[in-house]
Amino acid sequence: MRIGVLTGGGDVPGLNPCIKAVVERVADHGHDVMGIRRGWAGVLGVNPDDPSTVAEHLLPLDRTRVRTVDRTGGTFLHTSRTNPSKVRRDNVPAFLADRAVGEGPFDFTDHALRVIESQGLDVLIAIGGDDTLSYAMRLHDEGVPVIAIPKTMDNDVHGTDYCIGFSTAVSRGIEFIHSLRTSTGSHERIAVVELFGRYSGETSLITAYLAGVDRAVISEVSFDINHLAELLMTDKARNPSNYAMMTISEGAVVEGGEMALSGSADAYGHRKLGGIGVEVGEALKRITGQGIIHQSVAYLMRSGSPDSLDLMVAINYASMAADLAMEGASGRMVALRGGTYTNVPISVTKEGVKRVDVGELYDVEQLRPKVRHVNGKPMFLY
Amino acid sequence: MAVVGILTAGGDCPGLNAVIRAATARVVAGGGTMVGFRDGWAGAMEDHVIPLDRDAVRGILGRGGTILGTSRTDPYVHGQGLASLTPTLRKHEVDVLVVVGGDGTLRSAARLADEGLSVVGVPKTIDNDIPGTDVTFGFHTAVQIATDAIDRLTTTAEAHNRVMLVEVMGRSQGWIALYSGLASGADVILIPELPMPLEEAAGIITRRHAAGHNYSIVVVAEGISPPDAHELPKDAFGFDRLGGVAYDVAPVLERLTGFETRVTVLGHLQRGGTPTAFDRVLATRLGTAAADAALAGTRGIMVAVRGTTIDTVPLTEAGGPIRGVDPALYEVARTFFG
Predict the structure, then answer these.
(1) Count of domains in chain B?
(2) Is A154 a catalytic residue?
């Protein structure tokens, strides 16, 4: 049996140990693992008639190859946001160029199926977020056995309580917030810490909760800038070191304003987010007259090696996924539900949107985390 | 016995607390009395004074920031020079003032010395660009933080086959960029003193990617000129308010190389947090030397690092031309570009 494994979408710490654990679990049963480089772009880029493209995009993985990879962040297989069913003209491989007629985007799923068959890949394990997994679902519908592993630092894949990368992202956020405290306190300023998280406020909420930040603005709840300014001034006055600190999701929405969008859409229709922290900082400065420190943690949130929780989940997800693949299952996504490891149909990811449970975890008046009940909740509160 | 006052002014810098602690302990040990002024010059102008003794400075050696607070208030910009300080200094019978600050602060200190104030300066900046001293405390910590961040960002750059621009502080000079770039093996380092045309940088990146290493780390000093020159806002000392030039550089490099390019601005993360062991030791040596000079009646000087020893130099030296990086060191870094 030959199992293909790939990582798609944004990188997170935990991908490498996940790949390693897949390889080890599969090797235990005497099967082979083929690493597919650069996510679905690796499948797209293979020309079965050209061995050089096979060597470029497929990497046989054994215990020796993956021995040390689990110690670092990123993904040694590399990643991309390519979706073979929606290929932009500039991402079409040269050998497929004559098939790209018209404007695009182009659906090269028939090519993907040919590659998977020609390379003898019996089952694929796709590690990714919503977008990567949506194409996994497509292949499953086309009859290719596929198992999905959810990863995103935003923790926004519907159907699972936890995605690989979230804990490390929060850990980095906490670490940098505490680093900023001395500077913010010395200058008696208000710090606005902007966190990645796309349209989900979970990174802002949980980081603020764990770092003890004064206020947290999340994507799910629009906020009044004057009210926020008032709250922060109260926090600052109450703080013996005379400073205040807030987190804000990159996807946060000012009441009466628009989501800060800039840049161009990627293959999945997303836009490059960011900039709301600067805008809020400028507004707070105008309203309060205080000095503002704006810091975007951005890519540093997914930098470095995975923390212990992400190692734990990455390795366990990998083992479950490998077992499902070897059992001949398809269309399943490994998941955590109510604190328990399980698996669900990949299609669940399309059945809803995972966002912060505002009623349970957030105080919309005070603009900060409010965990109403803990007893009986799973370790991560949801 | 002498009453010594101390204040920290300008941007905060890891090691400030170590200086306060060392100077206080030394003054007290020498039989003097120490008082601290809150929020830089503002405390000396507005009579915000706290007594400092051995107990007041316990446990702060490893803490970032400054227990005295700091501000960008300047006695000449926001007051009438010495006249603005005299009431507070008289009230607390301060004989000599230890001023911990950057070149702007030390320039004001030198003017006050001309007006007759007894001043001892301690040079402070993470940017390492103050003339008259070979190195400043805080620099090593900033370089360490930047290096750690670049190391960590490398995995994400590699995973996405991207060019990652990491903007570091340093004002008009490239010390932090050069040192952190050297320490992390950066593929390109852009510094203000030795400008590299972006076409050349793009060429280095393109050749590197063509050779199969299809991700790159570019360290950008905040003080480089943006590709489209525009007027920068100023702060209270008339300095340019910097930060974000990497966002101007990124689209140009992306256009020239065709590679996806992303930006991380380290910003204030570089001056927060705890000082490195090197900076704690350096700050402690400078703090004790400043206290010794103050108690010995030496005036109008700043303590400085000369080679491996601590020396005193005229305070006016801090007002000289800013100290840039050694071009020979940039050549060393260049060896590893691409």
Answers:
(1) 2
(2) yes
